[in-house]
Amino acid sequence: MDLTVVIPLYNEAENLKSLAAWIARVAEGEELVFEIIMVDDGSSDNSWAVIRQLVEQFGYVRGIRFQRNYGKSAALHTGFQASRGEVVITMDADHQDSPDEIPGLRKMILEEGFDLVSGWKKKRYDSVLAKNIPSKFFNFVARMVSGIKLNDFNCGLKAYRSAVVKSIEVYGEMHRYIPIIAKWAGFSKIGEKVVEHRKREHGKTKFGANRFINGFLDLITIVVTQKYLKKPMHFFGLWGTLFALIGAGNLVYLAYIRLFMGIYITKRLPAMIFGAVALISGLILFCTGLLAELLSRNSPYKNQYKIAERIGDEHLGEAQEV
Predict the structure, then answer these.
(1) pTM score > 0.85 for this model?
(2) Cα 286 to chain centroid, rounded
(3) Is residue 322 predicted with pLDDT exceeding 50?
(4) Max Cα separation, the chain?
(5) Which helix (H) or strand (E) holds 251?
(6) Measured distance between the N- and C-terminal CA atoms of the chain, rounded to whole angstroms
(7) Helical H runs in the chain?
């Protein structure tokens, strides 16, 4: 299959029919064998009813519905696992991403050899204070941490080589940093394409101010887990040894001046407390690292979600061909 388009969605009933028709028009114009996977993240409106109609009407549409709202990362991960296309493209369901970008993104993957191409919404229609300025700051920090020269890490419009989506795990709220996850999974050829950002036609944004705090926490989580998941002792052991040496050195110095120089350390009580705390903290960190090496570091349940219903899989043996 040439193309899979994965669409995570939550309460986007008004946009789904026109979006599916737009994607189909572009894909058919390129004479592609394609599928559209719509992942309903526990919508409370009639999004699933619309998806059901689309599946019944068109063989290229497949639907997955979560029993409750898990978040965009869960929807993307599930869509990735179900995808069959040589190239996988993700886009949001709110019509702010243009399906007309599909041929250009696909060309960069197949002809220019990129593993992942991220869209860059150079001209945005979002609120400057609510989204634009915080997004620029997050992108700056992500570039510094990862070394990936992207202007817009969080753009929902992205293209992937199939091997990428089958190799990475996206959970929690890690969708913001998929390029970083892909790079640390060994897919280093990551590109960017300026894409059109459209005004939302129906509904309202599903992301609140808390996403900015979560963004920082997610970035820290990715850095620690990706760099030290296979070698936790390198992280905990390093800091544990450092703290233990500082604490032990401080206590040895205090013992020396008391025993050999006859200086009372009553006035140096804060230094003694600091040394003891540093030594104990270092030992705790070191032991934590040792235990982490002995424990299983990958939960088998972190990417299991309760799926209430799947439709369209009966078409798995078929292909939408023009």
Answers:
(1) no
(2) 30
(3) no
(4) 93
(5) helix 232-259
(6) 12
(7) 13-29, 47-57, 72-82, 102-110, 133-146, 162-167, 178-184, 210-228, 232-259, 269-294
**Cα 221 from Cα 211, distance rounded (Å):** 15
Residue 186 CB burial class (10 angstroms; 0-12, 13-18, ≥19): exposed
Q: pLDDT digit string (tens) for 147-167?
A: 898 988 889 999 999 999 999
Contacts of 248 (CB under 8 A, 6+ apart): 275, 279
- 154 Cβ contact list (under 8 Å, min separation 6): 135, 138, 139, 175, 176
What distance in Å separates the CA atoms of residue 281 and residue 190, rounded to the nearest whole number?
A: 40
Q: Which pair of structure tokens corresponds to residue 257? A: 């001046």
Task: Locate 40 and state its tokens.
Answer: 């309903």
One-letter amino acid for residue 185 of the chain? A
| Angstrom distances, CA of residue 298 to CA of 153, 185, 302 | 26, 15, 8
Angstrom distance (rounded) from CA 88 to CA 160: 5
Give the whole-angstrom CA distance, residue 271 versus residue 112. Answer: 61
- Structural tokens at position 321: 């061909």
Distance, C-alpha 29 to centroid of its chain: 31
